[in-house]
Design a protein that fits this description.
The complex is a heterodimer of chains A (139) and B (35). With 139 residues, chain A is mainly beta. Chain A is built from 3 helices and 7 strands. Chain A has helices at residues 3-8, 67-70, 124-131, and strands at 14-24, 29-35, 40-50, 57-64, 72-75, 95-101, 108-120. The longest helix of chain A has 8 residues, at 124-131. Chain B has one domain. Chain B has a two-stranded antiparallel sheet. The chains are: A mainly beta (139), B mainly beta (35). The A-B interface holds A 16-37, 40, 42, 104, 113, 116, 118 and B 3, 5-23, 25, 28. Strand 2 of chain A pairs antiparallel with strand 2 of chain B, so a sheet runs across the interface.
């Protein structure tokens, strides 16, 4: 069973969804940052892009903390909206997604959602071992 | 009333911040929610 499927069946913890709608200026970007509450870890397992013209909007970076320049880059040039996020070596205290508007003439309205699981910090080790996830840094 | 540029929804418990930046990376709009 894949990590995504396990999460969706609720095996890893409580499934939570973040939904965002934003209007991105021409050649601009939208940056989503999220942090779980104290004592918990959020494991994002999927990103769903809705109402998006895929040739105009591009996910350019997936980082932990600090944004495009300050964070550890987990994945970029990610194009397939239906694939799970590249989280196998991720850290989940602070997480950043950057979507860029490739259209240099028009603003674009985008809707997207992140599906993930919220788990207690004390549970993460056994879960990560079970699924072969290698955490880089847990604060 | 001006059009809302950012909407954040969902049952995520924690802090969510969304920033919109222009082509020169200047901040255009920011919204933050915490549950």
């Amino acid at each position: 069973m894949s990590l995504l499927h396990s999460a969706l069946f609720g095996e890893l913890g409580d499934i939570t969804i973040i939904q965002v709608r934003a209007t991105i200026p021409a050649s601009g970007s939208v940056i989503l940052t999220f942090n779980p509450p104290a004592g918990k870890i959020y494991l994002p397992v999927g990103l769903r892009l809705g109402d998006v013209e895929y040739d105009k909007i591009k996910l350019t970076a997936v980082c932990d903390g600090g944004g495009r320049e300050g964070g550890y880059l987990l994945g970029a040039e990610w194009q397939n909206p239906l694939e799970p996020l590249p989280v196998t070596k991720a850290v989940f205290n602070s997480y950043v997604l950057i979507l860029e508007n490739q259209d240099s003439s028009n603003a674009q309205s985008v809707g997207f959602s992140v599906v993930g699981v919220l788990m207690r910090k004390e549970d993460y080790k056994k879960i990560f071992e079970k699924y072969g996830i290698v955490p880089k840094r847990i604060i | 009333m001006a059009e809302e540029k950012i909407k954040i929804e969902g049952e995520f418990k924690g802090k969510v911040r969304v920033e919109i930046r222009d082509k020169d990376n200047n901040l255009v709009e920011k919204k933050e929610v915490e549950k």
